[in-house]
Q: What sequence folds into this?
């Protein structure tokens, strides 16, 4: 019941940051910027195959099964539409610290794209952090089906930084270990979607190919810990 009340409390909550164009989320402005890609089992060329890799992976993304529950657990209203969905996330730090935070799905897309690499069907969604989250920023998950050769590809993009919200001891834990756990979560998302998609297809359960880091831009760690954890009194 506590989780249900906490989820209900997210309704109408404001974002804890001002959304900006993607090019504005740079390390120079204090943002971590990450992008990863994961190859999934392929299909025949053309549109997504019914019951094939792309459709399976899409369902896994929509159901948030890509998240490793040892790192992040999620609760949401199963009757809610994907766009606008509010999700209560439990961030778990090595079974030492856990904190509940909120996000909202702000955009959903399912479209055809013509890119330099070819024509693709692309599904994805973005969520953003709500007031009270220990971080601020946005993250999206995308799924590509390349029509020319049938390749299926998962992509993850994230822009984040500390929010200076929450209790000081929680902020300290995430200041010390949060970035490492954040990257571990991204890599586990890539690994899980590959493993779960292959499992549903009934193909060989070999370890999936490793995710590829398309972008990794960290914030220079120049500020004092106390400066980041405790605002100065004026």
A:
């Amino acid at each position: 019941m506590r989780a249900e009340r906490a989820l209900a409390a997210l309704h109408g909550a404001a974002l804890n940051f001002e959304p900006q164009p993607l090019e504005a989320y740079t390390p120079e402005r204090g943002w971590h910027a990450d992008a990863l890609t994961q190859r999934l089992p392929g299909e025949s060329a053309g549109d997504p195959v019914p019951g094939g890799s792309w459709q399976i992976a899409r369902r896994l993304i929509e159901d948030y099964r890509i998240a490793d529950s040892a790192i992040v657990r999620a609760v949401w209203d199963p009757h809610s539409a994907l766009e606008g969905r509010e999700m209560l996330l439990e961030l778990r730090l090595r079974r030492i610290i856990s904190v509940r935070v909120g996000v909202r799905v702000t955009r959903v897309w399912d479209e055809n794209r013509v890119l330099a690499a070819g024509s693709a069907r692309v599904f994805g969604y973005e969520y953003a952090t709500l007031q009270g989250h220990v971080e601020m920023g946005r993250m999206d998950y995308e799924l590509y089906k390349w029509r020319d050769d049938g390749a299926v590809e998962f992509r993850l993009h994230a822009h984040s930084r500390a929010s200076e919200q929450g209790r000081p001891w929680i902020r300290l834990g995430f200041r010390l270990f949060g970035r490492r756990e954040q990257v571990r979560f991204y890599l586990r998302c890539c690994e899980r979607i590959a493993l779960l998609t292959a499992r549903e297809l009934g193909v060989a359960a070999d370890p999936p190919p490793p995710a590829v880091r398309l972008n990794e831009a960290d914030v220079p760690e120049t500020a004092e810990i106390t400066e980041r954890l405790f605002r100065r009194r004026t």
